[in-house]
Amino acid sequence: MLAEPSIALSLRGVSCTFANKDDPSQRYTAVRDVDLRVGAGEFVSVVGPTGCGKSTLLNVAAGLLAPSSGSIQVFGAPLQGINRRAGYMFQAESLMPWRTARQNVMAGLEFRAVGDAAAQADEWLKRVGLGGFGNRYPHQLSGGMRKRVSLAQTLVLDPDIILMDEPFSALDIQTRQLMENEVLALWAEKKKAVLFITHDLDEAIAMSDRVVCLSAGPGSHPIGEFTIDIARPRDVAEVRATKRFVELHTAIWSVLREEVLKGYQQQLAA
Amino acid sequence: MKHLHFWQAGLLVSIFVIWHVLTKPGLIPPFMFENDQQAAFFFGEPLKIFGRIWSWFAVNADIYQHLWVTLVETVLAFGIGTVLGLACGLWLALSPMAAAITDPYIKALNSMPRVILAPIFAVWFGLGIASKVALGVTLVFFIVFFNVYQGVKEVSPVVLANARMLGATQRQLLRHVYLPSATSWVFSSLHTSVGLAFVGAVVGEYLGSSRGVGYLILQAEGAFDINTVMAGILVLTLFALLLDAAVGWIERRLMKWQPKTGDTEKL
After folding, report:
1. N or C: fewer beta carbons within 10 Å in chain B?
2. How many CB atoms lie within 10 A of CB B17?
3. Is residue A2 in a domain?
4. DSSP character at residue A30
5. Are A251 and A174 part of one and the same domain?
6. B162–A99: do the CB atoms touch at under 8 Å?
7. Same structural domain, A78 and A203
8. In whole angstroms, what is the distance from residue B244 CA to residue A98 CA?
9. Best mutation site among B154, B155, B162, B253 for testing chain A: the one with the most A CBs within 10 Å?
C-alpha cells in the first residue's frame, strides 16, 4: 500500500537490565518485555510513574542504549547504532554552551555538511519565535527560549521520528502550554511520528493520538493503551475542559493511579 | 571600588619608599647591622636598582637580547607544552585502556621534582635555548594534561548524546564537543602554566647559559651586585605579569560563551 512500511518505530520484547559496575550481583531491570509501536505520522505518548524507565525506552529507540534483549525496527529495518532517522529532544539542557543559538541549530546540518546551514537555521529560529536571538549564547537565553532552540535544533534536520523526553517539564505552565501548542502546530504541518515521554497525564492526552501507560518499576511494561479520539486541531489549554477529555482522563487515571502509588511506595522504602 | 588603582599604586610606592629609607646609607641610624653600609649590601637600594633598569633599557640598551632569549624560551616551552598536554590529555581521556596502563607512570612523572632534570637536559640539548625549552615543557605539560583530562571526563553526557543524535561522527565529537568543553579547563590552567614556563626558562638559564635574564642574574650574583640581582627580579616579574595578561586577553576573546555573573547597577 505504502512505499515504506507504515510502522515508523517498533519495539519488540525489549528488556533493559543494568548491572552495578562495582557489584555485578546487583542488577536492576528497568523495563521488561516492552512492545511498542509508533505509526508513521502518529503522536504517541508514554506515561508512567516516576522512575519507571520511560527515558530508558526512549534511549533504546534513539539507539543510544542497546537493550539487553528484544529488537527495534525503524521503518521495517532493524536498528543498528544511532537511530539516524530520529531526532531527540532531551529533558535536561542539551545545547552546546559554546555555540550561539544559531550555531546550535546549525550543528546537525554542519555535521552532515549541508550547504545552506545558516539560512535554514535562521528560518527555524524565526519559526520558533527566536528570530532576533541567533547571536545569543544559551546562558543568555531563558529556560523556555533554550527549549525552543532545542526544538529548532531537532526539527531543522527534518527527522521522520521525533523522540521527546519530558521536554517541557522544567517550564512554567504558561510557557509550557505555548510550547505544546507550537509543537502540535509544527507536527500537524509535517505529520512525523512522535514518541513523547511525560509524567503529566493532561499533557499526554491533550497532545497525543494514543497514550500508553507503563507500570511502576522495576521491570516496567505497558499496562494499558488508550486511543485519544478528540478532534484536531486542538488547543492544549481549551481541550482540558471538554467532556471527552475528562472521560479519557478518568479512564487512564484509574489504570495509572495504582502504579503511581506503587512507585511512590518503592521510593519511600528505598 | 572607585580609587582601586590609586590605592594599588600607592601600596607599591610606599613599599619602595620604606625600602629606600631602610637601606640608604646614612639616612637613618643602623639598628640591625653594625654599620650603615650593610643594609644596602644585603637588600640593595631602590634608586640604584631603578638606575640599573634604566641603563639596561635606555642608556646601554643591552638587556633586549637577554630578554628576547628568555621570552623565546618561555613562549616555546609554553606552546609546545600546551599542545603536547592537550593532545595527550584528549587521547588518554578518550581511550580508557591506554589511560589505565599509563596511569602509574604519569603519576610518577608528575610527582618527580622535574627541575632536577635541568642538568640532564643541559647534557642532552647543550647550553643553548633547547635545554631551557625542554625544562619548561616538562613543567607546563603536566598542568595542561591533567586539566584537559579532567575537562574531557566532565563533558556533559546529555550534550554528548545530543551531538551524537544530531549525527556527529567521532571526529566531529572531538572537534565540536570535547575540545570546546575542555578549553575552559585548559584556560584555567594556562595562567599557572605560563608562569611555570617562565620559571623553566629562568632556572635553566641560571644553571648554565650564555644569554638570558637568568644569566644576567647569575653574573651579578657572582659579583655580589645585589642591585643588579634585584633589578633582574623586577624585570622578570613585570614580564611574567605581561604574559599572564596576554593569556587573560586571549581567554576573554575565546571564552565569550561562558556565563559571567553580573552585578546589578546601583542607580
Report:
1. C
2. 11
3. no
4. E
5. yes
6. no
7. yes
8. 23
9. B162
Q: Give the pLDDT band (50/70/90) at residue A157.
A: very high
pLDDT of residue A1: 40
What ipTM describes this predicted complex? 0.87
Distance CA A1, CA B63 (A): 87
Q: What mean pLDDT is predicted for residues A227-244? A: 88
Query: How is residue B185 written as a grid cell?
Result: 579547563
Predicted model pTM: 0.79
* Residue after which a domain boundary falls, among A113, A128, A158: A158
Of the residues A108, A142, A158, the one at which a domain ends: A158
CA distance B11 to A152: 55
Instruction: Tell me the Cα Rg of chain A.
Output: 19
Per domain, the residue ranges of chain B are 42-254
Query: Most B CBs within 10 Å: which of A98, A110, A140, as the mutation test of the B interface?
Result: A98
Q: What is the pLDDT of residue A174?
A: 85
> CA-based Rg of chain B, rounded to a whole angstrom?
24
Nearest beta carbon to residue B165 from set A62, A95, A110: A62
Q: Which of A85, A88, A96 to mutate to test the interface with B (most CBs of B within 10 A)?
A: A96
B150 contacts B184 by C-beta, under 8 angstroms: no
Tell me the CATH number at A204.
3.40.50.300
- Nearest CB neighbour to B167, from listed A62, A100, A112: A112
Model pLDDT, residue B265: 59
Tell me if chain B has a CB within 8 Å of the CB of A159.
no
Q: Summarize pLDDT for A209-219 with one digit per residue, the tens.
A: 999 998 887 88
Taking one residue from A and the other from B, the number of pairs with CB-CB distance under 8 angstroms is 70
What single-letter DSSP state applies at residue A96? -
What is the arithmetic mean of pLDDT over A122-142? 89
Q: Which residues of A touch B167 (CB under 8 A)?
A: 82, 84, 108, 111-112, 157
* Residue spans of alpha helices (H) in A128-242: 143-155, 173-190, 201-207
Would you mind telling me the total number of residues written for chain B in this entry? Answer: 267
Domain range for A35 is 7-85+161-269
Do A226 and A186 belong together in one domain?
yes
Residues on chain B bordering chain A, Cβ-to-Cβ distance under 8 angstroms: 156, 158-159, 161-169, 172, 176-177, 180-181, 183, 256-259
pLDDT at A3 (0 to 100): 41
Tens place of pLDDT for every residue, chain B, 267 residues?
Answer: 668 889 999 999 999 999 888 888 877 777 777 777 787 888 888 888 899 889 888 888 888 999 999 999 999 999 999 999 999 998 998 888 988 898 899 888 888 888 888 888 888 998 888 999 999 999 999 999 988 888 888 888 999 999 999 999 989 999 999 988 888 788 888 888 888 888 889 888 888 888 888 888 888 888 888 889 999 999 989 988 998 999 889 888 888 777 776 556 555
Residue A222 pairs with which residues in a beta bridge? Answer: A214
For residues A64 and A95, state if they share a domain. Answer: no
> B42-254 is classed in which CATH architecture?
Orthogonal Bundle (1.10)
State the maximum Cα–Cα separation within chain A, in Å, rounded to a whole number.
55
A229 lies in some domain? yes
> How many domains is chain A partitioned into structurally?
2
